[in-house]
Amino acid sequence: MALVIALLMLLVLTIIGINAITTTTFETSISGNERVATDAFYAAEAGIQVALNQIPDTTPIRPTRIGENSYFWSGSPNDKSSPKKINTLGEYPMEGFESSWSFRRYQVNATGESFGAMKEIEVQVAYGPFPGGSGY
């Protein structure tokens, strides 16, 4: 009887051990994917910063390497081979400024890639003030 109970206890402990190993492997995979996705997000953020620094110039940002396997460019994930330019959304007045001043709006889309993971960020920014309106 003791032998049967001992074998059943070993079976239960083996199943618990296998389950623990499987869970650990799965959690390691999840954390690795999260790290790669975070790297891709920060690569896209780098592209946004480059684009903001070049405004009012709206030329495309070519794929730029920032790490071993990380790149950024302007546009969507499909635009890596031919990046899109920064969009100009026109001029508009802003609260707190009189009507003789206006701001230019831009929309920046940047994509970051790291080890095959891609993240896209979209930012709209106001640039100005510039003399606007009728000037009266």
What key phrases describe this protein's structure?
5-stranded antiparallel β-sheet; alpha+beta; 136 residues; 5 strands; 1 helix
Write a brief structural summary.
The protein is of the alpha+beta class and 136 residues long. Helices cover 39% and strands 31% of the residues. Strands 1, 2, 3, 4 and 5 form a 5-stranded antiparallel β-sheet that branches.
Layout of strands and helices, then pairs:
Layout: H1 2-54, E1 64-65, E2 70-74, E3 87-92, E4 101-114, E5 117-131
Antiparallel strand pairs: 1-2, 2-4, 3-4, 4-5
Protein architecture, described:
It is a single chain. This protein has 136 residues and is an alpha+beta fold. The protein has one domain (2-131). Helix content is 39%, strand content 31%. It has one helix spanning 2-54; strands at residues 64-65, 70-74, 87-92, 101-114, 117-131. Strands 1, 2, 3, 4 and 5 form a five-stranded antiparallel sheet that branches. The longest helix has 53 residues, at 2-54. It is elongated, with a radius of gyration of 27 Å. The model has no long low-confidence stretch (mean pLDDT 92).
Order of helices and strands: HEEEEE
Low-pLDDT runs of 5+ residues are none
Radius of gyration, whole Å: 27 Å
Count of β-strands: 5
